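Q: what sequence does this backbone want?
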C-alpha cells in the first residue's frame, strides 16, 4: 500500500478535472481524495504502486479535453490516513499560481441535447456540461465552485443535483449545471414574454428587419439580418458607424463555406472551443449585404457559441430565419460592452427595437475575440472571450507581483505574478468615463481572483492618457511605485514576452501615435531592446503633423505637409490635382506648419500610411481607426492578385546623428510623381508596402553590423497589415534574420499591457 500526494497545475478547474480524476481513480483501484486548492488540484492517491503509476500517467497524458496541464508534482507520504473510497472533497484555498478558465463554447453533445425533444434540457438556453459553458464571465472568486459564481443563486433541482453528484454523468461537478426547471431564464425586457416564446419573438422581429439586442456570455450584442441592407444601414446610422465592418454570426459551416473562402486550418479554428471571430476572405458572389464590410476583402465571422444563439438560428417555430446575423458588440460609441439590463436600456436601448436578456449575471465582460490569419496560424487582433485570462508564461522573471494598465486605445490590462502574466479581456478605448470605470472594476476583480497583490503599477509615458492618471491614482491609493514604459518599446516587449524571448533584439515598432521620450510623436521606431532597457536606434523620416487630433483621422493633412517637403513651390498645385485640398486650405495649413501652430514633429508610421492612402485617392480621411491604411492594403492586395508585373523602386536608409533613418520621404515622393504620371494606384499602393519592407530589412542589416544581433521583433498596430508583415518577414528571413511576430497577443495596443508587465517582472 502506497500513498502519493499529487499537485496538478494549469487549467484544471472548471474543465471536469476532478470528476475525471475520480473516474480514473476508480478504474485503477485508487482510493483517496481530490480537491481544488485554488492554485492547483491536490490528489491523494492510495493503492498499489503499479496502479498509482498508471493513474499518474493517465492524468498526465490524457487529461480532459479542455484542461491544460502546466506541471505535476508527486510526493510519497508515509503517515497518511487510510481511505476506503475515492472522493471529491470540498475546496480549501491555498496561495500560489492560479489558472482561471476562459469561457468555453457549447460542446457538440450539449448541442445535440438542446435539439433533442426527448431530452429534459430540450431548448434550454443555458445548457452546459463539464466540457462547455461560461467560466470567467460568471466567476466571482476562486476556487471555481458554484457558490462563487453567478449560478450560486439558482439552486439545483433534484435531477440536476443527481447528475452533479454522480461521476457517471457528463455533468458530474459541472458548476453551472442547470435545466429548464432550475436554471436562469431568458426574457424580453419590458414585457412578460419569457423562454422560447421570447426567442421566437426576437426571431420574428429580426426577420421583419428589426434590430435586437441580445445578452450572451460576456455582454450584449446588437443583432440584425445580415442580408437585409436596410436593417444594416439603420444599425449603422443608430450606432454612428458609417463604414467600420460588422462581425457576423453564421448558422453553421455550410453557411460559412457558401459566403467565404476558407484556408486550411481555419475550419478547425472556427469550430473549436474558443469560437473567435475570424477574418475570412469574402466570396465574389455573396448573399450578405455589401454594407457589412464595405470595400473590404474580408469579413469577420463566428459560429454560435452559446445555446441562446443556437436557438436564435434553429428554434422550432414557423419563422423563416436567416442564416447570417450581424453580431456587433452592444455598446454606445466609446463605452464598454453592456453587461446588465440597466446598462442595456440606458446605452443601447435607442439602437434597437427589442432586447432579449436573461437573469444570469455577467460578472466580467468579455467581448468576442477577433483573429486574422497569418501563415496558417491565428493572428490576434482582439484577445478576449475564450483566451483571457489565460496567462502568458515567461521563463525569465522575478517573483514580483504587479499590475500594468496598458494603453489608451483597445485597452486591456495585465496582472502579473512572477512568470505568469495574466492579460485581461478587452476593455475598450479609455477616452470615456464608463470605460475607465470598467477598467477599475475588472482590475480589482482580476486581482482578487488571481490573488495578485501588486507591489508596483506600470503605465505608459503619455502625459495626457487617462490610463496614466488612473495609474497615478492607483499608485497613491495603494502606496506602491509607478513605473513608466515608453509606448513603442512596450509593443516590442509584448512581442518578446509572447515569444518568451529575453535576449537583446532589433525591435521594429510601427504604430499609430505614441508619446516619444523627446516630446515628439513617435510611431515608426527602431529599437535595440532587451527586457529592461532600450535605445532608439532609428526611425522613419520625421515629418510635420499639423492639426492635433484631426490629423490622426485626416490623412490629407499629413499628405499635404509631405508634399510641401518634397515639391516646394509646386505643392499647392499638386495638392489640388490630387484632391488633397484647395489652395486656400493649403495656405492655412502651410502657415500653421511654418509658425508651429498645433504642429508636432512625428515619425508615426500609421500617419504615413494615411498620407499615401490620401495621395492615391483611396481614403482622404478615416471614419474609424485604421480605415485609410486598411483600404490602402486592400488596394495593394487587389493589384497583386490581378497582376504580377515587377515594380522597380528605390529605397534608402542612411545614418544621421548616430541613428538610422528609413528614407520614407523619398518613397513618398516617388509615389506622388509616378501617380501624377498616370501610374496605377494599385501598383503604387503595393510599391509603398514593398519599399517600406525593403527599408526595414536594410535597417536590420545596418544594425546587425553595428550590434551583432540576429533577431528582429515586429510589433505595433501597423503590423496588423498582413501585406507589410509578410513582405517584411520574408525579406528579413531572406537576409538571415530570426523574426519574432505575434500570434495570440495582438500587435496593436491590446498587447501593450503585456509588454509593460514584462518590463517590470
Ligand atoms: Zn457541453
Ligand atoms: Zn435542474
Ligand atoms: Fe500602439
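A:
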Amino acid at each position: 500500500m502506497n500513498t502519493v500526494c499529487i499537485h496538478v497545475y494549469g487549467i484544471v478547474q472548471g474543465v471536469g478535472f476532478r470528476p475525471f480524476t475520480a473516474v480514473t481513480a476508480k478504474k485503477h483501484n485508487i482510493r483517496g481524495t481530490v480537491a481544488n486548492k485554488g492554485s492547483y488540484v491536490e490528489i491523494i492517491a492510495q493503492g498499489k504502486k503499479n496502479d498509482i503509476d498508471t493513474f499518474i500517467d493517465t492524468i498526465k497524458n490524457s487529461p480532459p479535453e479542455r484542461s491544460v496541464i502546466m506541471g505535476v508534482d508527486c510526493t510519497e507520504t508515509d503517515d497518511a490516513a487510510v481511505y476506503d473510497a475515492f472522493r471529491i472533497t470540498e475546496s480549501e484555498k491555498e496561495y500560489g499560481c492560479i489558472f482561471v478558465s476562459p469561457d468555453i463554447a457549447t460542446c457538440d453533445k450539449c448541442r445535440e441535447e438542446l435539439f433533442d425533444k426527448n431530452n429534459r434540457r430540450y431548448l434550454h438556453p443555458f445548457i452546459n456540461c463539464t466540457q462547455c459553458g461560461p467560466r470567467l464571465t460568471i466567476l466571482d472568486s476562486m476556487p471555481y465552485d458554484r457558490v462563487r459564481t453567478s449560478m450560486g443563486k439558482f439552486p439545483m433541482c433534484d435531477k440536476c443535483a443527481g447528475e452533479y453528484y454522480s461521476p457517471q454523468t457528463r455533468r458530474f461537478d459541472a458548476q453551472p449545471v442547470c435545466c429548464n426547471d432550475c436554471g436562469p431564464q431568458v426574457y424580453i425586457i419590458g414585457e412578460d414574454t419569457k423562454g422560447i416564446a421570447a426567442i421566437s419573438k426576437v426571431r420574428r422581429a429580426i426577420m421583419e428587419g428589426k434590430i435586437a439586442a441580445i445578452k450572451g456570455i460576456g455582454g450584449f450584442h446588437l443583432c440584425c439580418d445580415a442580408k437585409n441592407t436596410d436593417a444594416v444601414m439603420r444599425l449603422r446610422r443608430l450606432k454612428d458607424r458609417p463604414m467600420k465592418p460588422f462581425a457576423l454570426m453564421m448558422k453553421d459551416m455550410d453557411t460559412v463555406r457558401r459566403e467565404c473562402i476558407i484556408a486550411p486550418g481555419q475550419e478547425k479554428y472556427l469550430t473549436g472551443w474558443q469560437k473567435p471571430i475570424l477574418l475570412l476572405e469574402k466570396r465574389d458572389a455573396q448573399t450578405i449585404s455589401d454594407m457589412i464590410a464595405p470595400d473590404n476583402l474580408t469579413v469577420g465571422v463566428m459560429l454560435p457559441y452559446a445555446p441562446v444563439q443556437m436557438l436564435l438560428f434553429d428554434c422550432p417555430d414557423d419563422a423563416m430565419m436567416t442564416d447570417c446575423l450581424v453580431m456587433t458588440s452592444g455598446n454606445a460609441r466609446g463605452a464598454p460592452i453592456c453587461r446588465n439590463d440597466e446598462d442595456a436600456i440606458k446605452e443601447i436601448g435607442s439602437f434597437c427595437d427589442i432586447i432579449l436578456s436573461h437573469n444570469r449575471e455577467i460578472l466580467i465582460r468579455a467581448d468576442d475575440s477577433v483573429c486574422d490569419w497569418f501563415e496558417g496560424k491565428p493572428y490576434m487582433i482582439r484577445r478576449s472571450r475564450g483566451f483571457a485570462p489565460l496567462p502568458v508564461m515567461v521563463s525569465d522573471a522575478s517573483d514580483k507581483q504587479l499590475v500594468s494598465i496598458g494603453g489608451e486605445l483597445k485597452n486591456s490590462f495585465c496582472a502579473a505574478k512572477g512568470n505568469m502574466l495574466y492579460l485581461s479581456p478587452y476593455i475598450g478605448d479609455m477616452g470615456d468615463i464608463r470605460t475607465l470605470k470598467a477598467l477599475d472594476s475588472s482590475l480589482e476583480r482580476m486581482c482578487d481572483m488571481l490573488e495578485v497583490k501588486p507591489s508596483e503599477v506600470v503605465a505608459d509615458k503619455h502625459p495626457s492618457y487617462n490610463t496614466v492618471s488612473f495609474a497615478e491614482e492607483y499608485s497613491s491609493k495603494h502606496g506602491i511605485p509607478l513605473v513608466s514604459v515608453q509606448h513603442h518599446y512596450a509593443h516590442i516587449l509584448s512581442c518578446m514576452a509572447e515569444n518568451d524571448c529575453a535576449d537583446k533584439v532589433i525591435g521594429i515598432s510601427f504604430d499609430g501615435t505614441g508619446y516619444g521620450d523627446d516630446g515628439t510623436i513617435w510611431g515608426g521606431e527602431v529599437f535595440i531592446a532587451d527586457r529592461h532597457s532600450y535605445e532608439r536606434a532609428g526611425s522613419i523620416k520625421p515629418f510635420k503633423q499639423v492639426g492635433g487630433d484631426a490629423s490622426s483621422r485626416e490623412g490629407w493633412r499629413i499628405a499635404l505637409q509631405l508634399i510641401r517637403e518634397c515639391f516646394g513651390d509646386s505643392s499647392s498645385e499638386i495638392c489640388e490635382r490630387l484632391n488633397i485640398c484647395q489652395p486656400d486650405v493649403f495656405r492655412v495649413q502651410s502657415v500653421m506648419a511654418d509658425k508651429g501652430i498645433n504642429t508636432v514633429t512625428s515619425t508615426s508610421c500609421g500617419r504615413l500610411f494615411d498620407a499615401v492612402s490620401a495621395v492615391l485617392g483611396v481614403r482622404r480621411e478615416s471614419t474609424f481607426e485604421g480605415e485609410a491604411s486598411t483600404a490602402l492594403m486592400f488596394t495593394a492586395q487587389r493589384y497583386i492578385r490581378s497582376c504580377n508585373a515587377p515594380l522597380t523602386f528605390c529605397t534608402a536608409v542612411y545614418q544621421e546623428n548616430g541613428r538610422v533613418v528609413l528614407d520614407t520621404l523619398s518613397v513618398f515622393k516617388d509615389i506622388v510623381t509616378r501617380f501624377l504620371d498616370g501610374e496605377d494606384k494599385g501598383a503604387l499602393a503595393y510599391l509603398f508596402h514593398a519599399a517600406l519592407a525593403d527599408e526595414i530589412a536594410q535597417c536590420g542589416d545596418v544594425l546587425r553590423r553595428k550590434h551583432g544581433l540576429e533577431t528582429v521583433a515586429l510589433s505595433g498596430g501597423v503590423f496588423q497589415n498582413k501585406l507589410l508583415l509578410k513582405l517584411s518577414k520574408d525579406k528579413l528571413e531572406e537576409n538571415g534574420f530570426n523574426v519574432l511576430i505575434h500570434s495570440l497577443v495582438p500587435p496593436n495596443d491590446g498587447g501593450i499591457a503585456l509588454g509593460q508587465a514584462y518590463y517590470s517582472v
